[in-house]
Amino acid sequence: MQKSDTLKKSVDKDGLKAVKPKKRKRVKKKRYLFLKFLILVLICVVVFMTCALYGYRFIMEGTAQADVYLTEETGIVFKVPYGSRTINIAEELKEQGFIKDTRIYRILSKILGFDNAYKAGRFLITKDMNYYALMVRLTGEPLRNPTQDIRIPEGKTLLETAKILADQGYIDETKFLKLCEKTYSAYPFLKDVQKTDARKYPLEGYLYPDTYKMDEGWTEEDLIERLLNEFNRVFTKEYYDRAEELGMTVDEVITLASLIEMEAKYPTDFKKISSVFHNRLNSTDLPKLQSDATIQYARVYEGLGRISSVLNKDLEIDHPYNTYKIEGLPPGPICSPRKESIEAALYPEKTNYYYFFATTDGTNIYNETLEGHIRDQQKYGVSGQD
User: Of 188, 215, 233, which residue constitutes the final position of a domain?
Assistant: First the structure.
């Protein structure tokens, strides 16, 4: 009995000795994994705290920079055009030397919630501002501008005018053009003007060219209304009566005036060019106006752009505004004419001219016959273009 108990204890003791090392290995492994986990957590905490500290300093520094009072002498005016997206702003900031990496700017702008918060206008910023300060500034209130001088140039198509204004940051080009597609029958000069396949913009020719002072907060609608009101002021009752006397509608007068505007370089030519067009409009033998300016207009609206001089091959363009192919006036104006061109269309000089061309210095040479026209073209070296 004692021997058996002794043997059992011996076996149990040996058994314990055999199992004990395995348990110790498991414990050591668990401790090792736990230690790795603790180190990983510690690293994550350190990284997080570092990022948080850097982010905090970045935001606090940016906030302080954005709060600094600037004037046009101490800061730089940065313009954000209407409709600008983050990518457009970032690229312009980089181009002007305010940032180095557009990609980082765009990522931060998105993460920090600045996307879609940018405003159009003029802002004062400096080149030592960090990205956060720039974002705060460009999403804040733009510089107040109680009056803005908006220049509407003469001799430009509606598309060209819209692009000029948009490039200067005055308008949203898409919105402006959309408004120009509408009909404005409340104005007497536009009551019969409609949008057609050949005439996308009923307002073509009626955005009177001049410099306008616009009050703070004006919109595209306000600008168009201002331009139309100015046209209404310029086109007096005398002009309506004269148009009726000529047997022309207001739209035909403005269409003719737009051709004169584009063809004449000097004011002394306005009424002479008008006489050529009137003579042709009243002619059965020469009913086509054959105006190079209408070819240029057709090119602009076909997306081809203007060219320095119209060649014979350009006269073959298939377009409703090609007055080398159609008889009479084109479907509508080809630019916004000034008052002098309108008066020339209404009161042409009395001549027998049916032809004219411009020399290299812009002087117009007039002729009554085709023979004389060809002879003078050869004399001035402007014939035989192909």
Answer: 233
> Per this entry, what is the length of the chain?
386
Domain shared by 111 and 165, yes or no: no
CA distance 21 to 73: 80
Under DSSP, is residue 161 helix (H, G, I), strand (E, B) or coil?
helix
Domain holding 123, by residue range, is: 76-138
The 10 Å Cβ neighbour count of residue 26 is 9
Q: Give 354's DSSP letter.
A: -
Same domain, 241 and 354: yes
Q: Are 83 and 162 a contacting pair, CB within 8 Å?
A: no
CA distances (Å), 37 to each of 26, 29, 52, 356, in order?
Answer: 16, 12, 22, 91
Are residues 128 and 155 located together in one domain of the fold?
no
Chain segment 279-337, per-residue pLDDT in tens: 999 999 999 999 999 999 988 888 888 887 887 787 888 899 999 999 999 999 999 99
Tell me: pLDDT of 226 over 60: yes
